[in-house]
């Protein structure tokens, strides 16, 4: 239950007064227009099959358009000049996404919309910049892929969907006979010869991920019977015939699975398997399975990090993978015969190629392109051999950090070593004492990793206002292996809060923290932990709970992804109600003393608004200061403007209640 929202807020100054006095907090900061941020973001980068060009989606303000556009760069050009492509009529500027090279490297396919709003699949010739629409559709589309022979395009298609699909989207109104009109995401194929679209996968299978087989005759797919949001947690691995749509179940896993990938020789399928709390946050070990089905082999048992993306090397003997590694990032390979691990790159940085792929590789399996960023360096595009990248863009060379040093900390909690991040304000002075906010990530199997903070991000806003921000990767987070992820099973709120409080003690010993002015905030699972913390301890002077969960028993019947909780609680709410009850903040509401701001989206189907209402009413009943804000028409993910308000409301709440 994690949602990351990229929006922008203006800068603040930290005003420090005399030595040995508390640091001063900005009370009335000004918030910048999110459309006027100076940061250049890249949403996608892809290297051509021959490794001689890259194409990326990003924005430039040279033409003052401030919208994402597609650019191609010839890597043989010493000046590395980006050339704007795919921007001709009838495409609406800024609507292009999901760029994919044709196998011969001559064309790029992508989704976009016309000025009328009509969604379409477009092709652009890289040399001539000619643009053609090959197909239009009505619904939601993603995961565009070329067939190996370059004659067809496939994508995931939810016909007649009126907006985004998935657990982060806002729920539609439930009226009439419920679950009578369930949308199904299917594999669709477009023939370039005829421009005809036809849906291939069975109408009773919801496809979450897929990949063409090397011979182009079938797909490996992760799928389940609808509804999709809920049944992803029990999805199976299928082979689906491209010509007939016939489905063959290859594996019924005992865990969640993600990222199905054919070996180049077509003999095996690799995937990631593990305990996963969120469809958008794959994490686990690397497995391999014979293409015809059979028993999967775990190639990385006991690995002390969490694989989140995989890619076969051309030899079909090694699998490359990206891993979250104790708050950092590792690129490694594993040999499928010996299971030997080889670390290729490690850094206190984040790397990605698009929303699903972490690295874009050329056909040689060596040349690659990534977007890199960290707490210290804004995003830029890097290219090169595996792990030996060099920077080729300088879009953000004049952008300066508006927060202080970001420090990776470790501490012991019970028998575990916990990692977390401490963000200091600019001009931090150890002679002054600082208030601190503990910011809890979602999931619970999410993790805080080093990224450049958007101008409108809660951490940036708090840091610029003069707060130290502490972000722990407590037990249950990804990044330290499967046993660590499973350490909070049947124990929500107990061990993880213990880790957080032990981390607070460590931080207060090393840095000048005003321990009487410590607050807590979080969204999703982090919102739950904020609710839980204020019913368990008086450590916190103020709290902000975003999209929290107050009552696991009622939650089970309200949300659209109830199956996720059975893996963590060891059964349904009807099987083990006592386990659900012991972790429910509402059952301890009479112990709450902390002023708490509660924020939620009206249509949140992951953490429904009744959970926030229930906690708000409970706090009112026991006489604790509280405020509830419900954002209209919002799901688990909220809009940029709503997120800006969330940051403003959070900062004001902490300023008001932590003096």
Topology:
Layout: E1 42-47, E2 53-59, E3 68-74, E4 83-85, E5 97-101, E6 107-113, E7 119-125, E8 131-137, E9 139-146, E10 152-159, E11 185-191, E12 197-199, E13 206-212, E14 218-224, H1 228-231, E15 236-241, E16 247-251, E17 256-262, E18 268-274, E19 285-290, E20 297-298, E21 306-312, E22 318-325, E23 328-335, E24 341-347, E25 350-352, E26 360-361, E27 368-373, E28 380-385, E29 388-391, E30 406-413, E31 416-423, E32 434-440, H2 458-464, E33 468-473, H3 482-485, H4 495-510, E34 513-523, H5 525-536, E35 542-546, H6 552-558, H7 563-569, H8 577-582, E36 596-601, H9 609-621, E37 626-631, H10 640-657
Parallel strand pairs: 32-33, 32-34, 34-35, 35-36, 36-37
Antiparallel strand pairs: 1-2, 2-3, 3-4, 5-6, 6-7, 7-8, 9-10, 10-11, 11-12, 13-14, 14-15, 15-16, 17-18, 18-19, 19-20, 21-22, 22-23, 23-24, 25-27, 26-27, 27-28, 28-29, 30-31, 31-33
Short descriptors:
14% helix; Lipocalin; five-stranded antiparallel β-sheet; 35% strand; single chain; 659 residues; alpha+beta; Rossmann fold; 10 helices
Spatial shape: globular
CATH structural fold name of the domain at 402-551 and 594-657: Rossmann fold
CATH class of the domain at 402-551 and 594-657: Alpha Beta
- Using the 3D structure, state the CATH architecture of the domain at 402-551 and 594-657: 3-Layer(aba) Sandwich
Radius of gyration: 24 Å
Task: Tally the beta strands.
Answer: 37
User: What is the rounded distance between the termini?
Assistant: 32 Å
State the major sheet: 8 strands, mixed
Strand portion? 25-35%
Order of strands in the sheet with most strands: 30-31-33-32-34-35-36-37
Low-pLDDT stretches: 1-20
Residues in helix, %: 10-25%
The overall average pLDDT, rounded, is 91
Q: Class by helix and strand content?
A: alpha+beta
CATH superfamily of the domain at 402-551 and 594-657: Alpha/Beta hydrolase fold, catalytic domain
Number of helices: 10
């Amino acid at each position: 239950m994690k949602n990351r929202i990229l929006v922008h807020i203006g800068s603040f100054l930290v005003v420090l007064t005399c030595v040995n006095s508390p640091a001063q907090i900005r009370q009335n900061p000004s918030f910048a227009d999110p459309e006027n941020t100076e940061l250049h973001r890249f949403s996608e980068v892809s290297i051509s099959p021959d490794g001689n060009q890259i194409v990326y989606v990003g924005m430039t303000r040279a033409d003052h358009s401030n919208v994402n556009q597609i650019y191609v760069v010839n890597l043989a050009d010493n000046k590395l000049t980006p050339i704007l492509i795919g921007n001709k009529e009838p495409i609406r500027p800024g609507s292009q996404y999901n760029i994919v090279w044709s196998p011969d490297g001559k064309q790029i396919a992508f989704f976009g919309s016309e000025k009328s709003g009509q969604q379409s699949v477009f092709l652009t010739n890289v040399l001539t910049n000619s643009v053609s629409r090959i197909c239009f559709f009505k619904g939601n589309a993603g995961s565009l892929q070329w067939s190996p022979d370059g004659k067809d395009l496939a994508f995931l298609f939810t016909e007649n969907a009126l907006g985004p699909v998935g657990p982060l989207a806002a729920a539609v109104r439930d009226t009439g006979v419920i679950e009578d009109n369930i949308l199904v995401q299917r594999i669709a194929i477009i023939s370039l010869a005829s421009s005809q679209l036809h849906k291939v996968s069975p109408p009773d299978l919801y496809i979450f991920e897929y990949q063409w087989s090397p011979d182009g005759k079938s797909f490996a797919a992760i799928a389940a019977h609808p509804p999709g949001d809920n049944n992803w947690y029990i999805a199976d691995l299928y082979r689906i015939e491209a010509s007939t749509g016939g489905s063959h179940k290859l594996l019924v896993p005992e865990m969640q699975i993600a990222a199905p990938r054919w070996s180049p020789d077509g003999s095996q399928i690799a995937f990631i398997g593990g305990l996963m709390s969120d469809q958008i946050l794959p994490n686990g070990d690397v497995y391999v399975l014979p293409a015809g089905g059979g028993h999967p082999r775990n190639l990385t048992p006991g690995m002390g990090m969490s694989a989140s993306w995989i890619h076969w090397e051309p030899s079909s003997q090694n699998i490359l993978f990206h891993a979250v590694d104790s708050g950092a990032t590792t690129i490694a390979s594993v040999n499928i015969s010996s299971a030997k691990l080889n670390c290729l790159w490690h850094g206190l940085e984040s790397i990605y190629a698009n929303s699903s792929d972490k690295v874009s590789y050329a056909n040689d399996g060596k040349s690659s392109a990534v977007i890199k960023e960290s707490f210290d360096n804004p995003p830029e595009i890097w290219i090169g051999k595996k792990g030996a990248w060099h920077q080729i863009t300088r879009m953000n060379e004049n952008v300066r950090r508006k927060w202080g040093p970001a420090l990776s900390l470790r501490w012991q909690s019970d028998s575990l070593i916990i990692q977390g991040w401490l963000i200091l304000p600019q001009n931090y002075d150890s002679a002054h004492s600082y208030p601190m906010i503990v910011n809890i990530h979602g999931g619970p199997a999410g993790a805080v990793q080093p990224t450049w903070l958007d101008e409108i991000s809660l951490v940036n806003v708090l840091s610029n206002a003069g707060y130290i921000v502490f972000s722990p990767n407590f037990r249950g987070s990804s990044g330290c292996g499967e046993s660590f992820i499973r350490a909070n099973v049947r124990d929500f709120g107990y061990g993880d809060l213990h880790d957080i409080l032990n981390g607070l003690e460590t931080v207060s010993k090393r840095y000048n923290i005003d321990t009487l002015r410590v607050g807590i905030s979080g969204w999703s699972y982090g919102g739950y932990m904020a609710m839980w913390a204020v019913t368990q301890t008086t450590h916190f002077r103020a709290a902000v709970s975003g999209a929290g969960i107050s009552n696991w028993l009622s939650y089970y019947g309200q949300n659209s992804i109830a199956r996720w909780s059975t893996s963590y609680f060891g059964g349904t709410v009807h099987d083990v109600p006592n386990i659900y009850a012991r972790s429910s903040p509402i059952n301890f509401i009479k112990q709450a003393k902390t002023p708490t701001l509660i924020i939620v989206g009206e249509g949140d189907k992951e953490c429904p608004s009744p959970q926030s209402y229930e906690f708000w009413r409970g706090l009112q009943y026991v006489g604790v200061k509280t405020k509830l804000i419900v954002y209209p028409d919002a799901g688990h993910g909220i809009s940029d403007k709503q997120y800006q308000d969330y940051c403003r409301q959070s900062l004001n709440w902490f300023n008001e209640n932590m003096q």
